[in-house]
Automatic annotation (TrEMBL):
It comes from the Eukaryota. The lineage of its organism: Eukaryota, Sar, Alveolata, Dinophyceae, Suessiales. Pfam families: BTB, MATH_2. One of its GO terms (biological process) is protein catabolic process. This is BTB domain-containing protein. It comes from Effrenium voratum. InterPro entries: BTB/POZ_dom, MATH/TRAF_dom, SKP1/BTB/POZ_sf, TRAF-like. PANTHER family: SPECKLE-TYPE POZ PROTEIN.
């Protein structure tokens, strides 16, 4: 079975106040990976399992493409699991390489019985209050795939079937349904034979706050070219990132985040952070690192703080906690 060595699946769960869970209680992430290939899922026990107490346990499970597949093997799959505090910049990372094979008919797993103790959560990650959230994030690389991940799997002998995409502020946009379903699992499910959208050929996005004519046009252009306009503004890049998350367009999400990283500056760091708060990605981490590295930045951006407090109270709280931590370290 062919491999795509550069592929990486990202899984994550956000756990509020892990010490409030009972031992053995577990949470599941969504399943990641391409349809028709090997997929994976993150399982977290916020308060431990078995003999482990007062610690977070976390595991990655591998799911084969066929539910009843009896014999299969995924060699040298690398699983990295990191736990991050609700204030970015502090994290604990553990990495393990594992060969997955089926056991007793159950999906195999790889992980850490004691990923991080509650004591480490307090001292290493700086969780200061009872409402603190912990983000557990796993990266899984070197999974085998049944087909190339980024190739357009299109049957060009199939009849061309256009899709009319309705937007709130302009004429409908018309796009090739074959490309749409090949690029997006979200649209693949929406345009399945049994769904209304498949029979009507209409996708109605008029109630989507992000789906303006300009933004959807930019999204469709990316689906065709795999490139973003280098002259786009900040608000369009932020909107494309949100649309990519909703429509399961990982390539678009990564392209939008790369664009936003290039745009990041002292003047817009608070605005960008308010839009990516609690996503756990590199962009959020860069924002926090910028704030931590320059103690006077918030003072210079004082005129933005009123808007932050009103529009994003969760960010205002974390900025206060960040200042509190700095005071404790000095």
């Amino acid at each position: 079975m062919p491999r795509v060595s550069a592929s990486v699946e990202e899984l994550e769960l956000v756990v509020a106040s892990p010490w409030t869970y009972a031992p053995g209680e577990k949470l599941y992430s969504t399943i990641a990976g391409p349809l028709g290939g090997f997929r994976c899922q993150l399982t977290v026990y916020p308060a431990g399992k078995g003999e482990v107490r007062n610690a977070i346990s976390a595991y990655v499970r591998v799911l084969p493409p066929e539910k009843n597949m009896q014999e299969w093997e995924c060699e040298n799959v690398q699983c990295s699991i990191r736990v991050m505090s609700s204030i970015m910049g502090e994290e604990i990372l553990k990495i393990r390489t594992h060969t997955f094979t089926p056991r007793d008919g159950r999906p195999p797993k790889c992980g850490f019985h004691r990923l991080v103790t509650f004591q480490e959560l307090t001292h290493a990650l700086g969780l200061l209050d009872g409402d603190s959230k912990v983000r557990v994030r796993a990266s899984v690389s070197n999974l085998p795939f049944a087909k190339p991940r980024n190739g357009l799997q299109i049957d060009f002998s199939a009849e061309l079937k256009p899709v009319r995409i309705l937007v709130p502020d302009g004429p409908p946009l018309i796009f090739d349904q074959r490309i749409l379903v090949a690029r997006s699992e979200y649209f693949q499910k929406m345009l399945a034979a049994e769904c209304k959208e498949s029979s009507t050929g209409i996708v109605d996005l008029r109630q989507d706050a992000h789906a303006s004519h300009q933004r959807v046009s930019a999204m469709l252009s990316f689906l065709q070219t795999k490139c973003l306009d280098q002259d786009m503004d900040l608000e369009l890049a932020l909107a494309l990132q949100a649309m990519a998350d909703k429509f399961c367009l990982r390539d678009l999400r990564e392209a939008a985040r790369c664009t936003l990283k290039d745009m990041l500056s002292e003047e817009n760091v608070l605005h960008i952070l308010s839009q990516v708060l609690d996503t756990g990605g590199d962009l959020e981490k860069l924002c926090w690192q910028m704030l931590q590295a320059d103690g006077g930045l918030l003072v210079r951006q004082e005129d933005q703080l009123d808007a932050v407090i009103q529009q994003t109270p969760a960010l205002a709280k974390k900025l206060i906690l960040l200042g509190k931590r700095k005071m404790q370290k000095t």
